[in-house]
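ok trying this again, last paste got cut off
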Amino acid sequence: MVVAALGFAALTCVTSLLPQSHELRYYMSWMIVLVAINLWLASRPDARATGGGALGLGLLATLALFVVVVSTRGAYALPLGSTFAELVREKVDARAVAGILEGERVCVRREPFDVLWAPVFHRPRRYAVQEAEDETDCRGLRSVQ
């Protein structure tokens, strides 16, 4: 158990020194290792003998869930935010899409929402979208902004 704790502490130190470490979505390995170590520790025979094991892990997980829900006022447990349809309406200019000709190939520069301009989200329209980081990526295509 001490080796697992020291190994996880070392992983935590290394992860904290990496760029964007405050956004753990970039380093999901940290969370996966945390869960794996706890499952491994809970399944060991000595954990079951001391009254831990599955029941202890379940109680600890329930306590952790309670702490997160209380401290975030349920922000992660409630269905908050926009629907996908609302996001498309908010981030895509409907007049610009209406101006795209049937079968036309256009260039879109609206990072990170370029994908929302795809015709699959504007049915029954049929056209093609070229994603661009700068104007040189459009290669002669009409730019839709």
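PB: full thing came through this time. The beta strands are 105-108, 128-131, 142-144.
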